[in-house]
Amino acid sequence: MTEIKKNNILINCNTIPVKNILDIIKNGEITLDEFITAGLSQETIKDVVLMQAKVKTETKTQEDIEALEKQKQINIDKIIKGKIFAEEIKGLINKKAITFDDISDAGVAPKIVNALKYYCSAEKITRSYSVEDLPSMEEGRTDVYFVGLKGSGKSTMIAGLLNIAHSTGVLLPDSYHAAGLTFQTNLIQDLTRGVLPLATPSGSYNYIAASLNDANNKRHPLNIVDVPGELYNSIQDNAEVSKFLKYINNNNKKILIFVIDSLEHENSSSNNTYDQSVVFPNILQIFNANGVLAKTDAIYLVVNKFDAIKDSKYAYDDRPNGDLALDFLNQDFLSLKNNCLAAREDNKNSIKIKVMPFSIGSISYGSILNTLEKDFAKTIVNQITKDSFVIRGGAGKVFN
Ligand SMILES: Nc1nc2c(ncn2[C@@H]2O[C@H](COP(=O)(O)OP(=O)(O)OP(=O)(O)O)[C@@H](O)[C@H]2O)c(=O)[nH]1
Ligand SMILES: [Mg+2]
Q1: Pairwise pLDDT comparison (331 vs 236), residue with the higher score
Q2: Is-contact 142 221, C-beta < 8 A?
Q3: 16 FRET partner, CA 20 to 30 A, in 60, 173, 246, 250?
Q4: Cβ neighbours of residue 369 under 8 Å, at least 6 residues apart?
């Protein structure tokens, strides 16, 4: 722009439309300060400043859109690579950062997308009780207790066992505890739809009265208790443990299922500060001291998350799974095994000790089940049926 043209514009600045003034400023030909010095009206100055701010915001929005798009791509990549938890995906869906269509378009299998939809929509608020509020367990059943640290897979295993018992038709109708039945139905339904149980909150317990039918059509009534793993963190002088011991203090026969988290043990970067190889023997000792073992018919040492060690530690080992579980136990939990053997001797050698592998199947996003592994669950259900109390003449209909 020539000096003459510039002067002309400045002299006539109050006759020029705001839009043109903005363009001149934007092109760097004349500054706003120069317009002000030349006497631009207060009103036009205000308009120019406002328009400049608006343009700036619009440009920023465009930048934001690009950043959001970039972030969305990063999240989709994490989903494709499985490096994200279902809860995080739920958060992204809720704040509309991604959609289920984006997940489908990225190539995630429809079955998994459906499970994610269910996970994101399900209320997942299950009534649970403090140990004092649990209804007392019915006498004349076999008590089945799942013992394991937080995240070891107790609730998932209960869901897996009930699910297989239901789908193979051995779960009988049992209405002794209605709230437990609701909990049981939810666990079965969630798993069928590909969703694992949520972590059991601290101080929350559930009691399920369930019955299994055996090959001779005899009913095996069970008391199953799902506990928060936190209960077992610190056993000595723990008020919660005392309450729990009081709760299970009945004359029923018992099966104890020690849920060993094989993954946790292998992975030294674990965030569980409690060492299972110390905690389990302590629990066993306290059960012995409190008379629980005197009523125990069987202890199952279950090497859980077996899929994980099968893929890593035993990737090239073609021994049967049962042998591998025993090998794992001998290597990593020998003291627990020896403590169980000693406890058996203490209790007239009447406790059966069994070692078994278990895996719920392959999992995505921490909580979504890709494929349900049935055989491990079937084996454990069969063992429970073998080791549990029978009600004479208790044949029943199949649970639907
Ligand atoms: N790889 C693998 N992971 C599993 C398996 N079972 C459970 N998990 C994982 O372990 C997590 C914890 O399982 P839960 O069943 O909630 O464990 P829990 O023992 O009930 O834990 P608390 O309720 O906190 O005491 C699950 O969300 C899964 O991510 C399995 O068979 N294989
Ligand atoms: Mg749990």
Answers
A1: 331
A2: yes
A3: 60
A4: 115, 191, 194, 195, 196, 360, 361, 362, 363
How would you class 160 by CB atoms within 10 Å of its CB: exposed for 0-12, middle for 13-18, buried for 19 or more? buried
Q: Is the CB of 305 under 6 A from ligand 1?
A: yes
State the fold for domain 131-398: Rossmann fold (3.40.50)
Ligand 1 neighbour 228 (Cβ under 6 A):
yes
Whether 295 and 256 have beta carbons less than 8 Å apart is answered as: no
Q: Are 177 and 135 in contact (CB under 8 A)?
A: yes
Whole-number Å distance between alpha carbons of 368 and 370: 6
Whole-number pLDDT of residue 393:
46
- Whole-number Å distance, alpha carbon 155 to ligand 1 midpoint, is 7
Q: Which atom of ligand 1 is nearest to the CA of 263?
A: 1
User: Which residue, chain included where needed, has tokens 């990063």?
Assistant: 74
CB 285 within 8 A of CB 342: no
**Ligand 1 center to 16 CA (angstroms):** 71
Q: Cα 270 vs. chain centroid, distance in angstroms?
A: 16
pLDDT value of position 395 = 43
- Does residue 188 have a pLDDT over 50? yes
Is residue 310 lining ligand 1, measured as CB closer than 6 Å? Answer: no
Cβ proximity of 47 and 13 under 8 Å: no
Query: Ligand nearest 150 Cα, by number?
Result: 1
Ligand with an atom nearest the CA of residue 151:
1
Binned at pLDDT 50, 70 and 90, residue 64 comes out as confident
Q: What are the tens digits of pLDDT across the range 73-96? A: 999 999 999 999 999 999 999 999
Is residue 83 classed as helix, strand or coil in its secondary structure? coil
CA pair distance 235, 281, nearest whole angstrom: 11
Whether the pLDDT of residue 272 is over 80: the answer is no
Neighbours of 334 (CB within 10 A): 11
Distance CA 179, CA 128 (A): 9
pLDDT computed for residue 124 by the predictor:
61
Q: What is the C-alpha separation between 320 and 347, in angstroms, rounded?
A: 31
Q: Where are the domains of the chain?
A: 3-37, 42-121, 131-398
Does 385 sit in the ligand 1 pocket, CB within 6 Å? no
